[in-house]
Model the fold of this input.
Amino acid sequence: MLPELLAIAGGFALLTWSADRFVVGASAIAYNLNISPLIIGLTIVSLGTSAPEILVSAVAAWQGNSGLAVGNALGSNIINIALVLGVAALITPLNVHSSIVRRELPVLLLVMVFALLLLLDGTLGHLDGALLLAGMGLMLFWITRMGIKSKDSRDPISAEFVEEIPTDLGMGKAAFWVIVGALLLLFSSRLLVWGSVSIAQTMGISDLVIGLTIVALGTSLPELAATVMSALKNEHDIALGNVIGSNMFNLLAVLGLPGLIDPGPFEPVVLTRDYPVMFCLTVMLFVMAYGFRGPGRINRLEGVTLVAAFGAYQTLLYFHTLA
Done:
């Protein structure tokens, strides 16, 4: 299995690097077009950090491995909350001051319920995929509309985005990085899917489990890197906002693509094991970060709880695989 393992490792590395280049290039183009850093951060940056999940989901569904695509969407959300935010909170407690982030939290819950209602019949079909992708369009419209309101320009997250958006990259170089990033994202996605599916078939593991574990962890590396760096730079609102935005894109775009490309039933365990875990973690995130009596805060004890929940879920997957 050495070639497959090398393909997975190389795919992870290329996914992380190419996603970063794509985000840098797209953000610079938007900045050169005089789009505000707030809107760039809320849309392009969030979408860009979800690009690995989106491309992997599309490639997996195109090759008839929709189980991997579904596992990637749900597994990435679980990892983003339990591992990514948990590790970031262990490094430094995350204080949430942004009203924009607080408004996105209940929307994430609504998106999660909306996706669940579409999945309750045990099938991810063409209509489900179309509705999920339409939901993504509505979400982008809402976020953009929220970002252009004058009062949101004074939101704490706006100042944090100003520090992160590249302002010294010309249009030509920015376009170059967008093209290179997009091409390498596609290539690394195909490499990762091939290696993952080959190992799953060799070891007799379902595509769903591979998507929930190895693939989800690899495609979440950009979120992990971005969130930890934001936490270290005291950009706590960006750290949390990246995860919330990524999770919404995962539920709407990453989960919607297999419905359009390769519709059909999925493993019933998704609704009895994986979705409930994601649901509970999202509710925990809402309770921790919303700030019902002041600014939200994810402290180190809560970070430990989230990381422990990630470990417990991985253990559950292990024993379910053996059963």
About this structure: The first helix runs from residue 2 to 32. Residues 2-322 form a domain with the A middle domain of Talin 1 fold (CATH 1.20.1420.30). Strands lie at 94-96, 123-124, 264-265, 296-298. Residues 7 and 195 are 5 Å apart (CA to CA).
